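Researcher: Re-running this chain for the archive, since the previous output was lost when a drive failed. Same request as before.
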Amino acid sequence: MVLIPAGKFVMGDGAGEKDEQPAHPVEIGAFLMDRTEVTQARFEETVGYNPSKRERKEEAVDRVRWTEAIDYCNERSKREGLEPCYDLKTAECRFEATGYRLPTEAEWEYACRAGTSTRYFCGDDASALDAFAWFDKNAAKDSRPVGARRPNAWGLHDMAEA
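Model: Regenerated structure tokens:
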């Protein structure tokens, strides 16, 4: 896991899609985040099944419902002796619990940006994303193992899409 430092950033994009507007300042407390996406192997080891379309153990688990993701977080927490964050009946998160949880939208964007203020965490030019992300032009329309591209400045992999 990577310790994401506390900080402030401008969330959203005033010129972006409607759900990205308006850009606004946000303050984030420090938190931990996995260095890569959860692999199919880790998901299956933790919850006992793999919902992915194609079984490829070192690739990110896909086709996961939000309720399955929070169940995974709780099961992982229990296995490591931590207090689960989610009430599975109400789907509410107890942020003060010691266990694993999904990042909030603001935390995810902050972690993805990794302290930058450019359009992308690797600069303003989308072509630079080729070294950091898999997408239709460099992945031959196929999924890839997690962590195979360069991480952002905070050591997180697979945070960008082009």
